[in-house]
Automatic annotation (TrEMBL):
<keyword id="KW-0378">Hydrolase</keyword>
<keyword id="KW-0862">Zinc</keyword>
<keyword id="KW-0645">Protease</keyword>
<feature type="domain" description="Peptidase M1 membrane alanine aminopeptidase">
    <location>
        <begin position="249"/>
        <end position="459"/>
    </location>
</feature>
<dbReference type="Pfam" id="PF17900">
    <property type="entry name" value="Peptidase_M1_N"/>
</dbReference>
<dbReference type="Pfam" id="PF01433">
    <property type="entry name" value="Peptidase_M1"/>
</dbReference>
<dbReference type="InterPro" id="IPR014782">
    <property type="entry name" value="Peptidase_M1_dom"/>
</dbReference>
<feature type="region of interest" description="Disordered">
    <location>
        <begin position="1"/>
        <end position="25"/>
    </location>
</feature>
<protein>
    <recommendedName>
        <fullName>Aminopeptidase N</fullName>
        <ecNumber>3.4.11.2</ecNumber>
    </recommendedName>
</protein>
<keyword id="KW-0479">Metal-binding</keyword>
<dbReference type="GO" id="GO:0016285">
    <property type="term" value="F:alanyl aminopeptidase activity"/>
</dbReference>
<dbReference type="InterPro" id="IPR001930">
    <property type="entry name" value="Peptidase_M1"/>
</dbReference>
<dbReference type="InterPro" id="IPR038438">
    <property type="entry name" value="PepN_Ig-like_sf"/>
</dbReference>
<dbReference type="InterPro" id="IPR042097">
    <property type="entry name" value="Aminopeptidase_N-like_N_sf"/>
</dbReference>
<dbReference type="InterPro" id="IPR037144">
    <property type="entry name" value="Peptidase_M1_pepN_C_sf"/>
</dbReference>
<dbReference type="Pfam" id="PF17432">
    <property type="entry name" value="DUF3458_C"/>
</dbReference>
<keyword id="KW-0031">Aminopeptidase</keyword>
Length: 884
């Protein structure tokens, strides 16, 4: 390619500058097209002249030909919305470059060159929050996946690893704190009131892990001594008033560092570890090397503002980002198709960490609940994709529950099959073999195979096949032999009509009906389409507890007699299986009711069985309260609708509410007593006290459904006497759903108490948007006009509209008003923040699984979005796949 002709500077060619703002024709990118980059960039130097409106970025790239790639005479650098002000090769200003689409193409003749490019950006107008942006007067970056190209021209792909030296200078009043990756190596002041700092990160990294922060921040500081005795300075940076709220995050960080040493043998590798909290952030947090950037939601906590759930989430996310230092940073991804290599593995690591820090069974149940209510629907809808996708148009759309949560489940299955010790040998080998590399999912599987001594040939299908496998179970008793006849099928998903059987590890236990005991847990692996397993010496058909601990991420179809489920719900020694039996009991009842195949007598029987299991849970003195609270949670509407080919979400909601109300009335006395027992103790974060708060919340939920007046009084009293956010929130959730005078009063009290506290006000928005109140739609419309509402802050947008889209009775209003509101939100948000806008498409994309009347309305809204001019690549891709 000859590109060394007419120079195209932005001034010289106005069309060029325009091209950047034109809607891009979204191109399909294929995994099979991977090619190594023709150039190596061992060293990168960046110089930032910081200012909110105009930041000047000068980059210097040392480039060398990559001996392992097809050579090219051109250096192709990605850009997005930027233009080069100046290009230098080996110190000389050159014109031998062109800007083609968003790419800067520079002709290079030799083996190695120094390439310098100058750009200018405006952080204060960067509402996408990708690249360098301003948030509350501070500057920060977000580069994953493709944000670095909005800062400077660069081969913005994860397999180009460089060491970075960063120099930045800026106003010392506006930006007293200057941070980047690695270690601060020098700093100083200029005469003109500006100051500067130089940072160096010795570890080669891809551009998506670059980070810079400049602002008026204060830090909680601490230290950690690593297993080999090295001292690490820890700092969590926040805005002035937020310092007291960082203690839990800091404690979580130290626990995470220790845990990773013990559980995975991973030691931290820099002298500094910085965490910065920002209130404008598209995601939860980001693992930039040595400089994690967090959504404030996952850093700030004190009892008055954060719920028990928030505390747990902070511990989990702090752990997650820290664990990325090895699973993601030391070993990164070759290309974005391998995203689950770092995300699936790191989610598993954070799940195991949280299991070890608190109640392992409760954590496991929570993780499975998320999987089933978010990932299962994704896997059965138009956006289904394998954990290692084959194609995408916009990578931001692939930060999904499938990549993260199913990715974690797939690795967890390997761990289950290998056992903990052998799995550790596999991960040790992986870290050893691929340290410093940009690796693939295949590299990971191969390491586990070699290190743990497993044959994963067939197991690799879990990486390439989408869809939740369905396993059917038939139990047969032949004399004293018990046979389990199992079948498996993986449903068709977009682009994948035929699937092969996969290995499905099933942990099981057979309970003897006489002794009510089992002979120990076993692991069987179903790897054919149809397979039978035999168990001998059972006088009578045993009660089978299957997929214990949720050993495989599958759905199971099986007719278990109600009494057996009641037995397992009360007696299974695997807490997850116990929860599962309870869920099965409720799911089978509600699904029969929804299918209209329930006679009055059947309904009564079903309810009685549930009541019996419920009472056993309420009364069981051997249960801890956290677990008790967990067992009382009814299956989510999303999971219920997964059980039906097509459904009417409002009908599901009503049927579920009806059962709740019935249980609330039947167990009113028990719930009141429970609430009483759980009230009054002093606030503490220990498991017992948290268990009690969870019980209070559950008691209010059931009583609000069954005895609303009584519940309203209890909730108002709970609210007013509460000394913590968990109790305030659970009281408010109950009241928000009721048409009672206390509702308004407590909502106002909450608002006044927390006015100006963004995270607490987010809760105020989302509690109303997700409420059971019949007028929720009107409330949401009014809230959208509230002075505190803004489309510019992702947390606030999500707190209103994500909560609303998850509110089945309101979002699925029969006249389509809820769908219209979400579509309007997407259209208004798309020009501001496409990444966040696109995340509202999946709820509308579920139309194929919804009854025809509503489905047509949902489709119509998707079409209305598709017809809009200037749609972002993000939203375009999600809408077209959803209609497809
Ligand atoms: N990599 C981040 C994580 O999972 C998530 C993220 C993706 C954050 C993209 C920002 C942008 O830890
Ligand atoms: Zn992650």
């Amino acid at each position: 390619m000859d590109i060394a002709h007419t120079p195209a500077s932005p001034e010289g060619n106005p069309e060029m500058a325009d091209a950047a703002s034109q809607p891009k024709q979204p191109q399909l990118i294929l995994r099979s097209d991977y090619k190594p980059f023709p150039w190596l960039l061992p060293d990168v130097s960046l110089d930032f002249k910081l200012s909110l409106e105009k930041t000047r970025v000068s980059s210097r790239l040392e480039v060398q030909r990559n001996p392992n790639a097809v050579p090219s005479p051109v250096l192709e650098l990605n850009g997005d919305g930027i233009t080069p002000l100046e290009v230098l090769i080996d110190g000389e200003v050159v014109n031998s470059w062109v800007l083609e689409d968003d790419k800067l193409l520079i002709s290079l003749s030799g083996e190695a060159h120094a390439v310098e490019v100058v750009t200018e950006i405006n952080p204060s107008t960067n509402s996408q929050l990708m690249g360098l942006y301003a948030s509350n007067g501070m500057l920060c970056t977000q580069c994953e996946a493709e944000g670095f190209r909005r800062i400077t021209f660069f081969p913005d792909r994860p397999d180009v690893l460089s060491t970075y030296s960063v120099r930045m200078s800026g106003d010392s009043v506006q930006f007293p704190v200057l941070l980047a990756n690695g270690n601060c190596v020098a700093s100083g002041r200029h005469q003109d009131g500006t100051h500067w700092a130089e940072w160096h990160d010795p570890w080669p990294k891809p551009s998506y892990l670059f980070a810079l922060v400049a602002g008026d921040l204060v830090a909680r500081k601490d230290q950690f001594t690593t297993m080999s005795g090295k001292n690490v300075e820890l700092a969590i940076w926040v805005r002035e008033g937020d310092l007291e709220r960082t203690e839990h995050a800091m404690e979580s960080l130290k626990r995470a560092m220790k845990w990773d040493e013990e559980a995975f043998g991973r030691e931290y590798d820099l002298d500094l570890f910085n965490v910065v909290a920002v209130s404008d952030f598209n995601m939860g947090a980001m693992e930039n090397k040595g400089l994690n950037i967090f959504n404030t939601k996952y850093v700030l906590a004190e009892p008055d503002t954060a719920t028990d759930g928030d505390y747990d989430a902070i511990e989990g996310v702090i752990g997650h980002e820290y664990f990325h230092n090895w699973s993601g940073n030391r070993i990164t991804c070759r290309d974005w198709f391998q995203l689950s290599l770092k995300e699936g593995f790191t989610v598993l690591r954070d799940q195991l960490f949280s299991q070890d820090m608190g109640s392992a069974p409760v954590k496991r149940i929570e993780d499975v609940r998320v999987l089933r209510s978010i990932q299962f629907p994704e896997d059965s809808g138009p956006l289904a994709h394998p954990i290692r996708p084959d194609s995408f148009r916009e990578i931001s759309n692939f930060y999904t529950s499938t990549i993260y949560n199913k990715g974690a489940e797939v690795i967890r299955m390997m761990r289950t099959m290998a056992g903990e010790e052998r799995f550790r040998k596999g991960t040790d080998l992986y870290f050893d073999r691929h340290d410093g590399e940009a690796a693939t999912c295949e590299d990971f599987v191969q390491s586990i195979e070699d290190g743990a001594g497993l044959d994963l040939t067939q197991f690799r299908l879990w990486y390439s096949q989408a869809g939740t496998p369905k396993v059917t179970v038939r139990q047969e008793q032949d004399g004293t032999t018990t046979r389990l006849h199992l079948t498996q099928s993986v449903p068709p998903t977009p682009g994948q009509m035929d699937k092969k059987p996969m290995p499905i590890p099933l942990a099981l236990a057979l309970f003897d009906r006489q002794t009510e005991e089992h002979r120990g847990e076993e692991l069987i692996v179903l790897n054919e389409a149809e397979q039978s397993f035999e168990f001998s010496d059972y006088d009578a058909a045993p009660i089978i507890s299957l997929n214990r601990g949720f050993s495989s991420p599958i759905s199971i179809e099986r007719n278990v007699p109600r009494e057996d489920l009641v037995f397992l719900a009360a007696r299974d020694d695997d807490p997850f299986a116990r929860y599962e039996a309870m869920q099965d009991l409720v799911v089978s009842h509600l699904v029969s009711a929804l299918r209209g195949v329930l006679s009055d007598a059947d309904r009564a029987d079903g309810q009685e069985a549930i009541l019996k299991a419920f009472s056993a849970i309420l009364e069981d003195s051997a249960l801890d309260d956290l677990m008790r609270g967990e067992l009382l949670i009814l299956p989510s509407p999303a999971y219920l609708s997964e059980q039906l080919e097509t459904s009417n979400p409002q009908a599901i909601h009503e049927e579920r509410e009806r059962l709740k109300a019935w249980l609330g009335t039947q167990c009113a006395g028990q719930f009141e007593a429970l609430h009483q027992r759980a009230s009054g103790g002093a606030y503490s974060r220990d498991a017992a006290a948290r268990g009690l708060r969870k019980l209070k919340a559950q008691a209010l939920i059931y009583l609000a459904a069954g005895c609303p007046e009584k519940a309203a009084k209890m909730a108002a009293a709970q609210y007013h006497s509460a000394d913590n956010m968990t109790d305030r929130q659970s009281a408010l959730i109950a009241l928000a759903g009721l048409d009672v005078p206390e509702r308004e009063e407590v909502l106002d009290a909450f608002y006044k108490r927390y006015q100006g506290d963004a995270l607490a006000i987010d809760k105020w928005f989302s509690i109303q948007a997700q409420s059971l109140h019949p007028k929720a739609i009107e409330h949401v419309k009014a809230l959208a006009k509230h002075p505190d509402f803004t489309l510019k802050n992702p947390n606030r947008v999500r707190s209103l509209y994500m909560a609303f889209a998850a509110n089945p009775h309101a979002f699925h209003a029969a006249d389509g008003e809820g769908y219209r509101m979400i579509a309007d939100c997407i259209l208004a948000l798309d020009p501001i923040n496409p990444q966040t806008a696109a995340r509202f498409v999946p709820p509308l994309g579920r139309w194929r699984r919804i009854e025809p009347g509503r489905a047509a309305l949902m489709r119509a809204e998707l079409e209305r979005i598709a017809d809009a001019k200037q749609l972002s690549r993000d939203t375009f891709e999600q809408v077209s796949r959803s209609l497809g």
